[in-house]
């Protein structure tokens, strides 16, 4: 069972998707995302399996919620630095996002 101490170890922030590329090398359909978290953290990259419900155009400029303090992971040779959060719904992964615009880098508490 997770504890409040486990929760407090996570650094979850809001960022804005500033670039999206197809990721044909990935085992499962995915995009390569570059997400801007503002001046404190800068731009981080991630592999994200979002192709069922999103296009590159619908992701570009969208605010997303991500864990920013996991160790980087190599996905098909691509360095994934963050974990973009979503919900596994029947139709595909649905992104978590603020219901109104917030500042890049704002922390989830």
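^ structure tokens above, recovered residues below v
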């Amino acid at each position: 069972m997770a504890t409040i101490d486990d929760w407090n170890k996570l650094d979850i922030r809001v960022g804005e998707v500033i670039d999206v590329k197809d990721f044909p090398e990935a085992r499962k359909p995915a995009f390569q995302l570059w997400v801007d978290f503002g001046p404190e953290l800068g731009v981080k990259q991630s592999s994200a399996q979002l192709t069922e419900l999103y296009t590159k155009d619908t992701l570009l400029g969208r605010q997303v919620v991500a864990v920013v303090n996991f160790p980087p992971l190599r996905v098909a040779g691509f360095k994934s630095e963050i974990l973009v959060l979503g919900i596994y719904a029947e139709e595909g992964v649905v992104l978590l996002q603020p219901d109104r615009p917030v500042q890049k880098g704002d922390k989830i508490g």
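The first helix runs from residue 4 to 9.
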